[in-house]
Amino acid sequence: MNRVSLHWRAILGLVRRLPQGLISRITGRLAGIPVPGFLRGPVIGGFARLVGIRVDEAEAPPESYPSVGAYFVRRLRAGARVWDGPEELPGSPVDGVVGALGTIDGDTALQAKGMRYSVMKLLAGLGAGDRGGFWWEGGRFLTIYLSPRHYHRIHVPVGAEVTGAVSVPGGLLPVNDAAVRSEDGLFVTNERLVVQMEAEGGPLALVAVGAFNVGRISTTFEPAWADGATNRPGRGVGSGVERRDYSPPIELDRGEELAAFHLGSTVVLVFGPEWERTFAPDVLPGEEIRLGQALMEPLLQGSGEVREPSTGY
After folding, report:
1. Rounded to two decimals, what is the model's pTM?
2. CA geometry: angle at 267 spanning 35 and 161, to 5°?
3. Which residues are bridge partners to 198 per DSSP?
4. Which of 24, 98, 261, 263 has the lowest tally of Cβ within 10 angstroms?
5. Phi and psi dihedrals of 256, rounded to 5?
C-alpha cells in the first residue's frame, strides 16, 4: 500500500462519516449565488485562473456569467472542438483525463490495478436481460475523469437512439485518481445517471458518476431531470432508482448535448460486444482527451482506412 493510498484512505474515511449529499447540495447552492457585476471579473475570473480553465475556449468571458456555478457549466465557443472521422466513429463525450479502459470480463470492468467492479451494478441492471442474459460481456469500457478545469457538459459520443435511462441514488465519495485507486467499487457506490443507447455499431451506455461536491447532474433529453437527476433534496442511499423507458426512442446526433455536471466528476462509457472497433492508439490511461476526439479506430475498407474530414463543433 503506497503513501497516496494511505492518505486517501484517511480522507475517504472522513468523507464517509460526513453528510455527503447535504454538503454537496450546499456547495452547489453556494456556487449558484449571484455575483455582483463589478465583482464578476475578479471572482469568476480568479476562480478560472485558480483551477486552470482555458477562458479563451468559452463562448463568453468570465464576467458575463452571473455566478461561479453558471461559469462552471459554460458552453464552448463555436469551433473550439472538432469531431474526428465519419459519423459512425465514436468520439469522446467530454473533455477529461483517460482512466481505465479495456474489455468487460464476464460482468466486471477494471477500476484500477487490482480493483474491479460489476458492470451490471454500474448500469443498475439497465439492459440486462433485454436480449437474453448479460449482453455487455465481451464489450469494452472507458473511464474519463473531469477535473475542475475541464469543460463540464456531456455530449452524445455517436449518433444513437436513447432507449432508457436510470437515475441511481448513492454516496458522493471523491472520484479523482487517488480515490479511484483507494476505494473498492467506487463507481457502483456513488450516485449516477445511466443512459442506454442503440447506435449503428451496437448498444452503448454512458454513465455520469456523481462525486463529493457535485451539486447535481442535469439532462437535456429528459425534461423531468433538467434541473438535476441526482443529488436532489431527499435523495440518498436507499431512496430507490428512477427509471425511464423511451418508446419510441429519442434520436440524438453525434455531438448533441446530453447532460451536464454541476461541478466535476467522471464518465464511464460501456460498448456492447457488437462493436468491432478497437480503441484508438492515443486513448491511453493518464492522457488528456478532448470532446470529439476519436475513441476508436476507423474500420478498414480494402487496404485503406475509412476516414472523412473532421466536422466543427
Report:
1. 0.87
2. 105
3. 161, 203
4. 98
5. -65, 150
